[in-house]
Amino acid sequence: MHYEVISADCHIDLPWLPEDLFTSRAGAGLQDRMPYVDASGKDRYWVSRNGSRFGLQNGMGSAGRRYVPGQIHRSDRMAEQGLYSDGARGIRRLTEPDLRILDQDRDGVQAEVLYGILGAAMRLGDDEAAAEMMRIYNAWLADFCSVHPARFAGLANIPSHDVDAAVREVERVAERGVLRGIEVANTHEMAPLFDPSWEPLWAAAEQAGLPVHFHTIGPRMDYDFAALAPLQSRQAFAVHITGFQLPMAKIVMEVIYGGVLEAHPKLKLVIGESGIGWIPYILEHMDLEWEDQFKDLTLTMKPSEYWRRQCFATYQSDPIGIRLLDILGEDNVMWGSDFPHPDGVWPDSQEFIARELGCVDAATRHKIVCGNAARLYGFASA
Q1: What is the pLDDT of residue 220?
Q2: pLDDT in tens, 310-325
Q3: CA distances (Å), 330 to each of 39, 109, 280, 341, in order?
Q4: Separation between Cα atoms, residue 251 and residue 243, nearest integer Å
Q5: Residue ranges of the alpha helices (H) in the chain?
Q6: pLDDT digits (tens, 9 = 90+) for 203-222
């Protein structure tokens, strides 16, 4: 297959999965702790028996919100393509392989990298059940990707609360050989990535040749929204949404300063939906501080050199970041549409690419929108 555009950040969201997926495949004693669709009311919602809620069936975004016309411009553009109306009729365009390909064809995208359901797994509030939920999802995702392997690169969802369980899942995924990376549950409560407890996971991922992904989850929600007036609540939400990518700096700094990439030179790290405009400042400042006071850390070269050698970031729209490619590295940036999330650029990806990369030379542009992802995930042009 010939590739011109590969989206390095797309999503499979729990609300669009087959409604009996988890309850029908869970191990003994865990069926009653799995997410399922409650059809007892007027609307069908994904819930669990412990009171967790995962959104409207076939709802908008990872949280399964109800689409409200005129509220979010990008969602309106998706609605114009019939995505939400089809979902309301039970047509799962996002999780039926042939239908999903049609939506990507509409957007001029020949292949995509699929992030998963880790946000839902966290909301389950049950670590043991969440690990089983991820195992089930990973097996389903491998089946999904196997239908059109030239179009889909799925990322296995890996727990962060139990490194031994994470390693077992990496080994299971590697043995099957379908999925092309691992996405580690990114939580505010997980151990720092320089903690020695993570070492078995880094070793397993490096040995398996599976890139490790951390997807942005935004800053900790420390506003008391219930106590805020309506305008203040909107202002607080605007702060949260606008700063969504910035906490990813902590991931980058912990992995590099922690010597993870020094110890595992073949390991690849991807920070998903992170944006890129802020990264040059972090790299420059890490180099400065390392030179100034942290040369006692277990690093043999500048922090920015580890970034260039082993790290990647995805973005969907970041004209400032594109102006800083000389610092970021043209081999370290990958474009993604964020399909089907309401802050993504589907079905207008070609317009965004043309506007933001129109002044970039053709070879560099091809790397960003296609070549870097093709190389990392093994998409080979026929």
Answers
A1: 83
A2: 999 999 999 999 999 9
A3: 49, 20, 12, 26
A4: 15
A5: 21-25, 73-80, 83-88, 97-106, 118-124, 127-147, 163-176, 199-208, 230-242, 248-257, 260-263, 279-293, 303-310, 319-322, 325-328, 349-357, 362-366, 372-377
A6: 999 999 999 999 998 888 88
